[in-house]
Write a structure and sequence with these properties.
By secondary structure, the protein is α/β, with parallel strands linked by helices. The protein has two domains: 127 residues, Aspartate Aminotransferase, domain 1 (Alpha-Beta Complex); 270 residues, Type I PLP-dependent aspartate aminotransferase-like (Major domain) (Aspartate Aminotransferase, domain 2), CATH 3.40.640. It is built from 15 helices and 15 strands. The strands form four sheets. It has a seven-stranded mixed sheet with strand order 4-10-9-8-7-5-6, sandwiched between helices. It has a four-stranded antiparallel sheet with strand order 11-12-15-14, covered by helices on one side. It is globular, with a radius of gyration of 23 Å.
Amino acid sequence: MHFENTLEFAQSLDKTDALNTYRQQFHYPQVQGKDVIYFTGNSLGLQPKNAQSYVDEVMRDWAALAVEGHFYAEKPWWDYHERLAAPLAKVVGAKTKEVSVMNTLTVNLHLLMVSFYRPTQKRFKILCEEKAFPSDQYMLQSQVRFHGFDTKEAIVEVKKRDGEHAWRTEDILAKIEELGDELALILIGGVNYYNGQVFDMQKITQAGKKTGAFVGWDLAHAVGNVALDLHDWNVDFAAWCSYKYMNSGPGNASGIYVHERYLDKKDIPRFEGWWGTKKDTRFLMKPEFEPMPNADAWQLSNAPILSVAPYLASLQLFEEVGMAKLLGKQKVLTAYLEFILNEVDKEVDSSFEIITPKERGCQLSVFLHGEGKPLFDYLMKQGVITDWREPNVIRLAPAPFYCSFEDMYRFGTILKEGILSK
């Protein structure tokens, strides 16, 4: 598509955007009396307006029914989380029985590691990306120490080549082959939080499975942002948070995926709790654990309903739109943002360097050479909500549900003003 850096062109794209009306279904913070340009859906998505009614319904049922809400609420609480499985399965490319909602992301990764990191004296190494998100690093290190291994020996990081900002798939595949039967687990962020790179999850999973390793993915920055096909890719397990592109609210419940081959098994290593046991015998309080025949077997306690309710509200929007349409808009919207950045770069003394490769979702990470934190501060004061990472990188994530093409144009004008006003 031929782009133009004009307000009229941006508005023309919005007029033909079939998803443009969904902007009206989200709440926007305001700066100087105007809706912000919101680029931080990769940290916390905007609040869907329908979320309030879902939470209010739970509060009303709690007030009117108290404990009986577990069974007699309009959406009974004891199986409330099950309503999320089918729409989530469509988002991640899984079977409904392979998906569940519980806990928070790092808690779920730890629980899944119980099942899928089973090191032996020979096969004990974990492969991850260099400088993974800190929570993943801490989680992996603590798991390795728990099993009695040296983190420096057990955790293998795939590094980027000198002078490059993205990982090469061939380097990851070569490292997998090199580790061979010493490799117990691959656990990588499907989309890197810093540079926005989408890893080739299918190829990496295939290579890992070929060596006999388990393969899991931290999909915090991937779910709701990129195309996923976890079941057909033969991924063993995955987990994700729901408050970024899924718009469920701060710190809300996490999702998990477990491939069907591990379901309905009593002998799989797993930390267990009573919400993971079969529904029809759960309240008989039997001493023996009988796992649910789906991913709910990894549940420990009853779901935090007030946390899950906004997630269900957001998933209603995903059901209406579908991932194909979201990803179609995302591709054009992100390309237009890239075009705007390049146009501004031609008109100012600073030099922008987009370090996100072409394998991307909606995030662009941009080195602002010659600029510092004052430019970020200027953008924020002008109502451009973005994210700063040291030393001089801003992360821009134009989420297709609520970002417009006019937002991209307006951002370009504000960015240019901020640089020229120094």
